C-alpha cells in the first residue's frame, strides 16, 4: 500500500472536537502511513519554509507558517473573497483583484517548495479543496511524477459564471496536471466538463477521462459522507441526552425545528427565516406549536460580506420575533455560537424537523448528521435544498427550492403533519444511504481510484 500525502489549507488530526472528515483523513493516514501537510494557521514575519513536524494519535503532521501578506492575499483574499463566492454562484460578492491572485499563486508555490522534500517516489499525493488548485502543477514543475489527486469540497460553477474570473483559464489548465479530480456530484463534474470542452477544446470519454491540451485527467463524482455509526452512537451519549432533555423541557410540547450552519451567505439563512415567517403567517393555528432553533457560529468575520450577513440576520430575527412573539413564546431562537459535537447530536435528535436550505452547497454534512442522530422509532423529517450536493443522494427528504418562501412554508407544514409511518419509511431509506456511503466509503473510493491510475498517465500524452 502506498503512503499517502494529504495536503490541505489547514491540518486537523481528529482529536477533540474535530469533525468526521478530519477523523476519516486521520484514519486513512494511520492505515497508509504518510504525512498531512498544510498551513499552521500562524503568521511569521518572513517566510522561511521551516516545517514543524508533529506526531499526534499516530498521524504525522507537517505545517508551515505564512507571512501576513500571504494570509491577506491568499487566504482572506483569493480563497475567501474571490473563489468562495464565485464557486457558490455569487459573482455579486466576488472580488477580482490581481494582488489576491498573485498572493494565491505565491502561497501555493511556497507550499510546493516546502512539501516537495517530504514526498517519496511511490507516495500517493492528495490535495484538498479550492485553496490549492495550482498545487498539482507546481509539484510537477518541481519534478514530482507521483500520482496526484485533487478533491473539491465546494460546487464547481457553471461555465459562464467561471468565465468572469480573470484567471479562469489558467486555473483550469493547471488542474490538468492532476491525475484524478473528485467532485461531490455529477452536476459539479458536468459543469467542469462544460468549461473544459468549450474553453479548452477538451474531449471527455465514457470513463470520464478528460483529454485537453495534451494532458489527461480522470474525473469522478464521489460524494463525501459522515461517520454515521459513530454519530448515531454520539446522539445517545450522556451529554447528548442531557441536551435532548433540556431542549424538550424548554420547548414544552412544541415542535422543534432546527438549523445548524456556519454563518455564511451560501447557507440561505435569510431565505430560511423568511420561509419560516411565511409559515407563521399562513398557518396561524400552528404558529405557537413550533419553535425554530438556529445555531449559527460566526465565521470569516473579517470579510465584509460576512459582517453584512450577520447584521442582516440579527435584524431579521429581531423583526420576526418582535412581530410574532407572545408572552410565553419566541418564534426564533437565534444562537451565534458553536457547541460540542455531542451536544449538536442531542439537538438534532430533539428536533422533529431538520431545516437545511443552502442556496448552494458542495455537499452539506449537517443534512447527513441530522438523519444519523434520529430515533429510529420516532424519527424527524429532513427538509433539504435541491441546491445542496446532498440532494443527489437524499431524494427521500422533502426537497425544496430555498429561494421560495412558499415552498419552505409548505414543506414545514408537510413535515409537521407527516404521519409516523411515512417518517419512518423516509428515514430508513435516508439512513441506509448515510450509513452505506459514509466517510470511509468516500475515502476508499477516491484513494482506490487514484491508486488504480497507471503511474505513467501523469506524463504528457500525444497532442
Ligand atoms: C465544506 C463544503 C461540504 C456546524 N456548527 C457547529 C458544528 N458544525 C459542523 C457541522 C458539520 C460542519 O460543521 C459543517 O459542514 P458542512 O458540510 O455544512 O459545510 P462546510 O463547513 O461549509 O464544508 C460543504 C464539506 O466541506 C465537506 O466536503 O459538505 O458543502 O462547503 O459537520 O456539524 N460543529 C460543532 N459545533 C457547532 O456549533 N462541533
Topology:
Elements: E1 4-10, H1 20-32, E2 34-44, E3 51-56, E4 59-67, H2 68-87, H3 98-115, E5 124-128, H4 135-141, E6 148-151, H5 159-162, H6 168-175, E7 180-183, H7 186-200, E8 203-204, E9 209-212, E10 215-221, H8 228-234, H9 238-251, E11 255-260, H10 269-282, H11 284-287, E12 290-295, H12 304-324, E13 332-335, H13 341-350, E14 353-356, H14 365-372, E15 381-385, E16 398-400, H15 405-416, H16 420-436, H17 439-451
Parallel strand pairs: 1-2, 1-5, 2-4, 5-6, 6-7, 7-10, 11-12, 11-14, 12-13, 14-15, 15-16
Antiparallel strand pairs: 3-4, 8-9, 9-10
Bound molecules: GDP-alpha-D-glucose.
Structural class of the secondary elements? Answer: alpha/beta
Mean pLDDT: 94
* CATH fold call of the largest domain: Rossmann fold
Please state the second-level CATH architecture of the largest domain. Answer: 3-Layer(aba) Sandwich
Number of helices: 17
Q: For this entry, what is the oligomeric state of its chains? A: single chain
CATH superfamily of the largest domain: Glycogen Phosphorylase B
What fraction strand?
15-25%
- Bound ligands, named by name, code or SMILES: GDP-alpha-D-glucose
Stretches with pLDDT under 50, minimum 5 residues: 459-463
Summarize the main sheet: 10 strands, mixed
**Widest sheet: strand order?**
3-4-2-1-5-6-7-10-9-8
Distance between the termini: 33 Å
Helix content: 40-55%
Number-wise, the strands total: 16
Q: How much is the radius of gyration in Å?
A: 23 Å
Q: Quickly count the domains.
A: 2
Shape descriptor reads globular
Which CATH top level class of the largest domain fits?
Answer: Alpha Beta
